[in-house]
Amino acid sequence: MGNNLYHADCPAIETLALIGGRWKVIILHVLSKHARRFGEINVRIPSISRKVLTEQLRELEADGLINRKQYKEHPQKVEYALTDFGKSLCPLLAYISAWKKNVEGNSSQDIIQLPD
Amino acid sequence: MGNNLYHADCPAIETLALIGGRWKVIILHVLSKHARRFGEINVRIPSISRKVLTEQLRELEADGLINRKQYKEHPQKVEYALTDFGKSLCPLLAYISAWKKNVEGNSSQDIIQLPD
DNA sequence: AAAAGTGGTAACCTTAAAGTAACTTATGGG
DNA sequence: CCCATAAGTTACTTTAAGGTTACCACTTTT
Description:
Largest interface: A-B, 42 and 44 residues
Oligomer: homodimer
GO molecular function (chains A, B): DNA binding
Pfam family, one (chains A, B): HxlR
Domain HTH hxlR-type (chains A, B): 10-108
Protein name (chains A, B): HxlR family transcriptional regulator
Keywords (chains A, B): DNA-binding, Transcription, Transcription regulation
CATH class of the domain at 7-83 in chain A: Mainly Alpha
Strand order of the largest sheet of chain A: 1-3-2
CATH topology of the domain at 7-83 in chain A: Arc Repressor Mutant, subunit A
Helix content of chain A: 40-55%
Low-confidence stretches of chain A: 1-5, 107-112
Strand content of chain A: 5-15%
């Protein structure tokens, strides 16, 4: 189980390891607009459980895509925001979306236009 | 379990469903150079079992990314090739790779250059 | 003092993907 | 007629991701 040599140096696969999680793209999408509190994220993605949301956030944090700020306040307040590294993913996600939309619109195999 | 409303219309996630499989990016990468026989693919990706390779190829075929041509020959010969639809993914994969490489090279958050 | 809001954690369960190993089918060559 | 080769398939097990439910810690409001 340790000999995925092919995996080790394939940048595309390393990238997918960062964003391939079941909910990560959605979470990144939510955070791309504003920094958000835990509960705000959860409201926007109701079908994710708090446990899994926590896990995904921890992984995104460990991978340096988001950071977590804890405020000492009345009821607890924790805010998640994209790091610069995380922001650098946004055009990539846009590109991935754009490909799918292109494919749906045209019959196939057309040239993909990058969104701006 | 059926109410992933958020999933349903997120193009990025739909795209990841096509290429997010454990081995799909690697397989597409192998096929991007030549059409390849089953055994040739397996030699290039030794750590994938024949069972899983078959499954992944069937899924890629069902999604219209590759096609399978069976030749009536001496020992069996089956060849897999990218469809035009599959080829339209190549720039996307290149972009994904390029992002990772950019990130490794520079300290972070730089503008990503599309490969040509 | 009790309740309520926020952001969790712990213990446990389910399921889907992946892996292993042995068997199968079709074909041509010797 | 038997064997080798290519391309699988079948049956079974393992693993990892995700899900459910219940509980905890801290603070403020009533």
